[in-house]
Amino acid sequence: MYSCDVLIAGGGPAGSSCAWALRSSGLRVVVVDKSVFPRNKICGGWITPPVLQALAIDPTDYARGRTFQPITAFRIGCMGQKEVDVPYTEAISYGIRRCEFDDYLLRRSGAEIKDGVAIASIERSGKDWIINGEIKARLLVGAGGHFCPVSRFLGKSTLDVPVVAQEVEFELTDGQAASCGIAGDAPELYFCRDLQGYGWCFRKGNFLNIGLGRLDQHSLPEHVTQFMAFLRAAGKLGFDPPNKMGGHAYLLYGHSRRKLVDDSVMLIGDAAGLAYAQSGEGIRPAVESGLIAATAIKSADGAYSRERLQAYATLLADRLGDGRNRNETLASRIPRGVRNGIARLLLKSEWFCRRTVVESWFLHMHDSALTPGERPLMISPLPAV
Question: How many helices and strands, by DSSP H and E, does the chain display?
Answer without folding.
Answer: 12, 18
